[in-house]
């Protein structure tokens, strides 16, 4: 038996309403200011986070499973050109995301401030110099190439000569010598 005429009209009407709503949202988003966009996206992130926080692990697995199925179905019907375009877009997004993490250091070598504690920054922390070179006893970072400091024992620097007398007495830390220095 064919479906009732009113059911077909109802579906067509619902599809038209969805298309109209999509067009209104597109026009509204095109007209919004950057501040309004940030506010809208922030609100949306908050709603999404609270929704995901409230879902159970079974609901999460179901949601992720249906997302995987939709993505697999979408990728199964895409053309090689669409696949290349999608891959290029993903590469661009990933490169931009990686670059954002290091923009705070851009040009920092030209604006070095000794007061900034660069070595304690989490993105710059490479560990302590705990390894000792077996050839020259220099401190090295873990994983540093052996012999990088002295070319595997091929380079030997002469021992430092003791400093001249005025400098030697100042470096000794003797308070009697330091008292003789006039204040300026």
From TrEMBL:
InterPro entries: STPR. It comes from the Eukaryota. Residues 21-86 form the STPR domain. This is STPR domain-containing protein. Pfam families: STPRs (PF21107). Residues 32-61, 78-92 have a biased composition (Basic and acidic residues). It comes from Didymodactylos carnosus. Residues 1-94 are annotated as: Disordered.
